Amino acid sequence: MISKEQFQQAQQQARNYLARAGIAITAEEAANIEVADFGLNELEQTGLELVVYLNTERVCAKELVLFPHQTCPEHRHPPVAGAPGKEETFRCRWGQVYIYVPGETTPHPHAVPPRGREKTYTVWHEVILDPGEQYTLMPNTLHWFQAGDEGAVVSEFSTRSRDESDIFTDPGIQRAPKVAE
Amino acid sequence: MISKEQFQQAQQQARNYLARAGIAITAEEAANIEVADFGLNELEQTGLELVVYLNTERVCAKELVLFPHQTCPEHRHPPVAGAPGKEETFRCRWGQVYIYVPGETTPHPHAVPPRGREKTYTVWHEVILDPGEQYTLMPNTLHWFQAGDEGAVVSEFSTRSRDESDIFTDPGIQRAPKVAE
Question: B-chain residues within 8 Å CB-CB of A25?
Answer without folding.
Answer: 132
